[in-house]
Design goal:
- With 261 residues, the protein is α/β, with parallel strands linked by helices.
- It has two domains: 3-130, Response regulator (Rossmann fold), CATH 3.40.50.2300; 157-259, Beta Barrel (OB fold (Dihydrolipoamide Acetyltransferase, E2P)).
- The protein has seven helices and 15 strands.
- The protein has a five-stranded parallel sheet with strand order 2-1-3-4-5, sandwiched between helices. It has a five-stranded antiparallel sheet with strand order 10-9-8-12-11.
- Strand 14 and strand 15 (244-247) form a beta hairpin.
- Helix 2 (37-46) packs parallel to helix 3 (63-71).
């Protein structure tokens, strides 16, 4: 991508000379010209400018004041003073100038300034890419922690005999109310817990868990058969479970809608 340059000089002849020299470079593109500092500031705010070739003696706002304001920008351009003033170099460099060229302009001095600018821009690009990569790595790390925590939070903690077992919801086949306890039947065995069915119904995803009866919460992924037991009553058979699950008459239509049957 070519360097984007702005020429700032109130003298038209000087602008023409500088433009001619800059246009010899294929790695540089002139994006505008300004005749004083205020116009230069406006152009730098409107356009992406990498380097400003700036005269010092100008009306309304001179080059030194313009440079100071440009350096206060969020992404300040590189500044190269191109001036007939011979005694302002120290002040210019104190303002953060990249280079200081005294008129009449010699082509090799322009070459030197552009070379410096390319190194500065390359360094800035490297830093920006490094920051973006570190930010990306940090965000990926945070996202991984979040996903890990999210996965952990979705597991159901079962406390028994001095140990804590974390059960994945997709491993749960059915939850059955047994008095003040709830028996949870899973692929890996059964657990008698102090949860209530209401608590489990709220906690487990309603996308595949369904309250088929006041006493049963079923994982629909394990439904193998739905049998008519006579007199409007039904029995559900589940994979990997030897229990016959009662389906209440009031829940039958809701279950059919949920399962699309």
């Amino acid at each position: 991508m070519p360097i984007r340059a702005l020429i700032v000089d109130d003298d038209q002849k000087e602008r023409i000379i500088l433009r001619y020299l800059l246009e010899q470079r294929k790695d540089l593109k002139i994006v505008g010209e300004a005749v004083h500092g205020l116009e230069a500031l406006m152009l730098c705010q409107e356009k992406k400018v990498d380097i400003v070739f700036l005269d010092i003696t100008m009306p309304k706002m001179d080059g030194l004041e313009t440079a100071a304001k440009l350096m206060d920008m969020k992404e300040p351009p590189a500044i190269v003073f191109v001036t007939a003033q011979t005694g302002m170099a120290v002040t210019a460099y104190e303002l953060g100038a990249l280079d200081y060229i005294v008129k009449p302009i010699e082509p090799n001095r322009i070459e030197k300034s552009i070379g410096k600018a390319k190194k500065v821009i390359a360094h800035q690009d490297y830093i920006e890419n490094l920051v973006r990569q570190r930010l990306k790595n940090r965000m990926e790390y945070i996202l991984a922690l979040y996903n890990q925590e999210e996965a952990l939070l979705k597991r159901l903690p079962i406390r028994e005999k001095g140990k804590l077992t974390l059960i994945k919801p997709e491993d749960i086949i059915v939850c059955e109310s047994q008095g003040k306890k709830v028996f949870i039947c899973t692929r890996k065995g059964g657990f008698l817990t102090s949860f209530t069915l209401n608590q489990l119904e709220k906690r487990l995803s309603d996308t595949y868990f369904f309250r088929v009866h006041q006493a049963y919460l079923v994982n629909l992924n394990f439904v193998d058969e739905i049998r008519n037991f006579g007199e409007g009553s039904y029995i559900i058979r589940l994979e990997n479970c030897d229990r016959d699950i009662t389906l209440s008459r009031s829940k039958l239509r809701l279950l059919r809608d949920r399962m699309g049957i």
